[in-house]
Write the structure tokens for this entry.
Amino acid sequence: MKDSLFPSNLLSMKRTIVAALLLCVSFAVRAQRPEFFRPYASTQLRLPAVPIIVNDPYFSIWSPYDRLTDGVTRHWTNDPKPILGLLRVDGQEYRFMGEREAVLQAVAPMADEERWEGRVAYQQPSDDWAQPDFDDSRWAVERAAWGSPDLAHISHRWDALESDIFIRREVNLSAEQLAEDLWLKYSHDDVFQLYVNGTLVANTGETWVNNELLQLDARLKALLRPGRNIIAAHCHNTTGGAYADYGLFTNVAPKAQTLLAEQKSVDVLACNTYYTFKAGPVELDLVFSAPMLIDDYDLLSTPVNYISHQVRSTDGRPHDVAIEFQTSPLQAVNSSEQPTVVEEGSADGVHYLRTGTVEQPILAKKGDGICIDWGYLYLPATNGEVSVLATPNRPTLSYIHRYGRVKEGRSFLMMGYDEVQDIEYMFHRYKAYWAHDGQVTITQAFRQMAERYTAIMQRLRQWDKTIYDDGLKAGGREYAEMLSGNYRLVMAAHKLFRDKDGQLLWFSKENNSNGSVNTVDLTYPESPLFLAYNPELQKAMMTSILVYSRSGRWTKPFAAHDIGTYPIADGQTYGADMPVEEAGNMLTLCAMLCKLDGNTLYVDPYWEILTTWVNYLAENGQDPDNQLCTDDFAGHWAHNCNLSLKAICGVAGYAEMARMKGDVATADHYLGVARSMARQWEEQALDGDHYRLAFDRPGTWSQKYNIVWDKLWNLGLFSPKVYERELRYYLGQQHTYGLPLDCRRTYTKSDWIMWTAALSPTQSMFRQFMLPVYRYIHETPSRVPLSDWHETDDGRSVAFKARSVIGGYWMRVFADKWAKQ
């Protein structure tokens, strides 16, 4: 194979590869209309972000809009990962996906072009500080940008924790400039507000983004005036790095004669996202499919997605139709400033374009809010033509399928991402499972996916049916839609591979919280999905924690919090321990897995470790001291009653495993310990008509979701009155968008609500807890891959997004399945 290299700054090239001349085999869809172009069930749930192309924490593209044309597709970090979709009908072009990239020319440049001056304060000013007539003469004059000294374009250091910066920038505009297509661009870390002449135009919440764009529509542009304007910003640094910079730009891209396709519907099922559009006399059906079959490890791990498309005439006449998808080197960068290449190549009968960074820093970055900048995005020419277009900002990768003059037609294309090396585990580097230690290449994967397209799509539709029907049976239509809409979110927060010893490993990334690998207090809340459908993947999340302890590198008498920071998993990197939390999590999950297996083979090699952990819980779990736990969002409280429940169930779980091993004496001893702990719990936690948040805090309450194992295992550790009191009390504490986590704040964790809801004795009561969560998903103004931490009063995300803990939504499904075993 010989590749042609196209540097990003070379804009004069255009090479076209015609697939019909180059492919040995045609992979067109069969002539009759396949069933998989229609969703198994129509869905009414408006997701805050719709999955488009997803595979793992890096290859993850979403549309955070009601309509696919409302904006650019994005990574879960919010970085742009653009895909543009165009349909040409009888010479008229229609846009059905994404938006054309703006070509921005600075009016008031950012620091990468000019170290502009602003007036700055570091203490809270008066409320009118962003107004044009505010007197800022006593403020310091400093040059942009502001932030941590190790970041790009910094002129003035500002990075103290929990500190603020207030910036005022004067921008003079002519009447001619005001008539142009104006855009604000800003970069920030963390909380950021942007004002135009005193009016708030952007309020990000706690996040960090580079070069975020805001097009000024008529309403926002009306805030500007000829002559002097003040564009002001406030940034608050919570922790870690800090950054603040912004500017004003005009879009000089030529106006395209493109009409907007009318979106008629969107339906999101477990593996497939369905859109239908009207484009003049033609309707277009799109299906974005991720082959995430939970029991097919090759398909689950292969970093390739399908995009299926179908056109049909609505007036009974044939029309000349072609469909085009365009994408960008931005798919393969962590920063838009990184130099990239576009390459043309051919292997295994597959011709393709690919793009990646020049540097290729393989596994060189680790952390939370980052995008991959090694490996390559691939766009194969299957069923179409690919070409490189010379566009102003950077080259564009284009795929076109020409239907010709038709009344009806259908086909598909694929997109994929080869990370070259995917993960480092205990100082060894690995590719994902699909590559089979390098025996399968990405082009071979594309060819296999193309050859098996129809069979795979039929299987994906069947899996859509399974997820939807199980949810429908357990909790009704709304529950089915919640599960269907978030299945890919959970699965795409993981990476599957085998280590050098042949162990199957399913590594989660703690997205948008700290980037840890296999965080035990994520493995625990997300477990219901995997316990319900594939316990082997649940084991594959836990094995690394057990092996880490057995290796002697982790010597504390409780489980580690994590095994690294994604994608480097060489040992715990989190700076604190969660002793009762993680020991209880691991013991209860180990017990549940053994019950599902009907034996203790999985835990037998680690029995000594589990014994150490259970003794820690028996000694420290009855009335925990001031320890970190997963519910500490409003602060750490000692004597946490829900944490005590976790310890009790962990001790009982160990007893259950001992009994399965045939060690009756050990089983009876630890079950007796658990029962004694439970009796004390009931006495000490009781607070009239409910149970306390902390043993020493009367008048408090919290969700007691950890008690679910007592119910699932039918142990009777706690009296029926505990469940009755708590559930009845919870129903009286609900807000518009769900049950708060505890009495201290109005925010909640929706995964824990769904665990709590699973305690309900009837489906009717379950729905009383579930429906406010459905309403939150449907109405939240926070347009991100679903946040599990939100305010129950206004439905806004507090923090977190795209996290695997959403797997906890399946607790009712798992409980129902387990009850039938």
